[in-house]
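Workshop exercise sheet. Pairs work together: one partner reads the sequence aloud, the other fills in the structure field after running the prediction. Swap roles for the next sheet.
Pair: D.N. / O.F.
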Amino acid sequence: MTALAFRLRLTFGLLLPGLIPPGVFGADLRTPLASQPPRVNIADRAACSSLVRCKQSTDDALRAVSALGFKWVDLACLNWAPHVSVPKLMEDFEKEAGRVEAVLKANGLRVANLTFDGPDVRPFDQYEREFAAVVKVAARLKARLINIMAPSAKADRDEMVRRLRKLQAAASQAGVLLTVETHCDQLTERPADALWLCRQVPGLGLTLDPSHYFAGPNQGASFDALYPFVQGTGFRAGGMSWKEIQLPWGQGPIDFTAVVRKLESAGYRGFYVAEYIEGFNELEAERESGRFLDWAKQL
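Structure field:
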């Protein structure tokens, strides 16, 4: 379509729709959006988990993420991958927050999300204090959300709902979204249970890792009902068993293009995160994360 035709279409097709027959300037502008394929452009929202170098220092991890070409990082605050050290935040918040800010700036990165431990891994009074520090640093770094591991599938559900409601309220007060991850052996390992959890905790979202819905008990069955609740993602090619949960990008049964289209159609506005984990298997996590980014740019 020429620029002139486009301007005419905008002027007359929108302001005076009755004067222009459908299809004169191509696709009818009055066609409902729902009947048109959703536009997919996710490159600007592509991020990389710092778990790509989970065994390395914050400096090394963020240097690797930047070298791959990412502008956004999903930053681990996990006990086993402390690229943001929660104990150090509690000991001297300004020092640890300043350290992380300096490393981010040096590598030209911004924080998409923070990832933290689940609420059932230690006494909840201690966890609450730690979570408050994570919320504070999330606000400081302008992170969109905090993703926490979901409670164990064997945890007391009523107690976990009580805890998550408190955590959700604390995050919301700071203007930060809270999600739990879809994960094998956790309360979210089946889509119906993940949906139940979100409905029990108003405002709670999901970080969707589709690989767990193929490798785990869901075995690739539909999880479409979850898309309206998804606020974050962790993308990693995977197969139909735990030993295949981290495959080379482009392999396996997961149609990530379809997942993205369904997310966008549901109004998703979050980041698309490559979550390849260093040392999980023989794959080179950095190489596969780079392949994810190439895919995102071509989508």
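Discussion prompt: Confidence is low (pLDDT under 50) at residues 1-35. What would you look at next?
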